[in-house]
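Appendix B. Worked example

We walk through a single record from start to finish. Start with the input: the chain for NMDE4 protein, Cochlearius cochlearius, length 199.
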Amino acid sequence: LNDTNPRSLIVRLCDVLSSLRIHGVVFEDDTRSEAVAQILDFISAQTSVPIIGINGGSAIVLTPKEKGSTFLQLGSSTEQQLQVIFEVLEEYDWTAFAVVTTLFPGYEDFVDYVEVLTDSSFIGWEHRGVLTLNLTDDPEGTRLRRQLREVSAQIRLLYCSREEAEAVFRAAREAGLTGPGYIWFVVGTNLGGSDQLPE
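Next comes the structure step. The output line below is what the pipeline stores for this chain.
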């Protein structure tokens, strides 16, 4: 299925499910749209057909899922990504960090989980605060560059969408915050794909 707009995706999947004896669906797409995962979750809940999302938008981990859904996604959750990042931070003794988020859905849970990881640890983490960015009110990125410069930590945990990450890194590069001495960890369930974020 190459057309992943919601209507076409639902119609095509329903046509396939109603015309063939199917025991399950393995779904891969090259989008980064969480809408694909939501549609597949809905279809699984409504039809009781197991669906496995293996790449692209179908693999963006949804929590919680629809009641009755048997939709399995092969991706890592935000919590799993943070656990790995904190292992790396601990390994290199990088204990001082700041959190940078946008208003992307789930950002409050992200911040809360960072607090859980740092508060429940015996490591002396130095959490230097949370910067929440509103990118819609700053089309030129002037305020964004100023806000990024005000963050005192060299290590930054960024939670946002892929499109927002491109804007944040563009502003960070223009502000001189992406060179040697700055370490960014980008966290999110929709950042996958073969394309790289801008340098």
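Two observations about the output. Confidence is low (pLDDT under 50) at residues 193-199. The chain is about 40% helix and 20% strand.
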